[in-house]
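A reminder from the course coordinator: this example appears on the midterm review sheet, so study it carefully.

Given structure:
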């Protein structure tokens, strides 16, 4: 990320601590986001969408039901991210906003890069890259794809609201479109 974007997100972290949650720590949030990403991506891959209720917003869940049913098995397998296969995580946009009723929200977009061994073509257009790792002799190769995903987490900070983060956007470029 650019230095300006890094500085902007750090400023928003300070605002979150000052005006929303004095205990907010980006490191803890990132650990929880990685875990949520891994669980949700695996449930998507397994078509267990009913288990996503409460983790994912109702609007996103409805869209996912339509998209998942259209995916090939290989593309659906590529959605799954084991937590140990997440190579890199970074924040995208961080926002603090109020809705028309005066409720206060925080939204954090997280970007994940993960390795997946799904049987995808070597040349998947877009952001997908292919790595071949050789174990033993030259005839034994295991392909790993470096894939990206964007998940947006939202939490309401209005007094009396549940202290739960909900996923309000899920993007797996070139896989889940």
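Designed residues:
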């Amino acid at each position: 990320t650019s230095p300006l974007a890094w500085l902007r997100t750090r400023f928003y972290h300070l605002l979150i601590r000052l005006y929303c949650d004095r205990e907010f720590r980006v490191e803890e949030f990132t650990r929880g986001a990685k875990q949520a990403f891994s669980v949700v991506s695996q449930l998507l891959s397994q078509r267990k969408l009913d288990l996503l209720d409460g983790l994912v917003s109702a609007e996103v869940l409805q869209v996912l039901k339509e998209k998942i049913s259209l995916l090939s098995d290989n593309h659906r397998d590529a959605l799954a991210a084991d937590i140990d296969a997440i190579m890199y995580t970074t924040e995208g946009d961080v926002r603090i906003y109020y809705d028309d009723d005066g409720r206060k929200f925080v939204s954090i977009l997280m970007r994940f890069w993960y390795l997946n061994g799904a049987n995808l073509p070597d040349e998947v257009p877009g952001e997908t890259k292919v790595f071949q790792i050789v174990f033993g002799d030259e005839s034994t190769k295991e392909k790993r794809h470096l894939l990206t995903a964007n998940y947006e987490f939202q939490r309401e900070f209005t007094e009396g609201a549940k202290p739960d983060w909900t996923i309000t956007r899920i993007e797996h470029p070139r896989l889940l479109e």
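The CA atoms of residues 12 and 94 lie 7 Å apart. The helical segments are 3-19, 26-45, 58-70, 73-78.
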